[in-house]
Design goal:
70% of the residues lie in helices and 0% in strands. By secondary structure, the protein is mainly alpha-helical. Bound molecules: zinc ion. Zinc ion (ZN) binds next to loops. Zinc ion binds next to loops.
């Protein structure tokens, strides 16, 4: 019984914060405040009352339409909330109840926001990644098992790797392959998770990105020259590194000796 209350609370916290993330995704790239003004319908401008702003449920009882103008609410809103709720369950399932868990849950939300902003605008805002690098180092040094040395190496390896790639890619691939936002994002990931996980993140992101990119080109969903931003792949790689990275590294090195 109490078991279900605990898991239920984690999920509800996740979707409430997920609801806040939809605001961040919408406003951060435009440099707008994420606290004021209150949310309004983008179509008719009507303010959204608290009773119509309840994560997941409001979407269901409004049947996906604005109460005032009946314009449809994008399905991405409840999806963003739901995934954030499930993400928090995953983090608590993996790490239990500890300070680490709070950091990892926050990190999950950052990955999720970056995924959508990069998808929409093909940018990863400095306002997320630069404070993220500093905060990641503090968390890595003081809260997480990462440790400050590993965290510092994570910033250097994560940032340095992509910086090198960005520098050579115009010569190798003919045009800019890696944006500055990706570099700072991977440096931030390295700050939180350490240098090993930064490398794992980049490996997973590259492989998944290549497979999906080639698949979409072959299926002609993407035309030549069109591309999917790298941020969502980095976020996926970082999620895998955060949840299973230590297991993957142990397994890999046991295989070598
Ligand atoms: Zn409306």
């Amino acid at each position: 019984m109490s078991h279900w209350i605990v898991w239920g609370s984690v999920f509800i916290l996740g979707i409430i914060i997920g609801s806040f993330l939809t605001v961040c995704i919408h406003r951060v790239p435009n440099g707008r405040s994420i606290v004021a003004p209150r949310s309004a319908c983008p179509q008719c401008g009507a303010q959204i009352g608290w009773y119509d702003n309840i994560p997941l449920l409001s979407f269901l009882w409004l049947k996906g339409r604005c109460r005032v103008c009946k314009d449809s609410i994008p399905v991405r809103y409840p999806v963003i909330e739901l995934v954030n709720g499930l993400g928090y369950l995953l983090v608590v399932w993996r790490f239990g109840f500890a300070w680490d868990t709070v950091v990892y849950a926050g990190l999950f939300s950052v990955f999720w926001v970056v995924t959508w902003i990069d998808w929409d605008h093909k940018i990863i805002p400095d306002v997320i990644t630069l404070p993220g690098i500093v905060f990641g180092f503090l968390c890595g040094a003081l809260i997480l098992t990462t440790g400050w040395v590993n965290s510092l190496l994570g910033i250097l390896v994560g940032g340095g790797f992509l910086l090198g790639l960005a520098w050579i890619s115009p010569y190798v691939f003919g045009k800019e392959g890696m944006g500055g936002g990706d570099i700072k994002f991977l440096a931030m990931i390295g700050a939180f998770l350490g240098w090993q996980q930064a490398i794992l993140t980049l490996m997973v992101a590259s492989v998944v990105g290549a497979v999906i990119g080639i698949g979409l080109l072959a299926a002609k969903v993407l035309k030549k020259g069109q591309y999917i931003p790298f941020g969502p792949y980095l976020a996926l790689g970082a999620l895998i590194a955060m949840i299973w990275g230590i297991d993957i590294w142990n397994w890999y090195f046991r295989g070598l000796v």
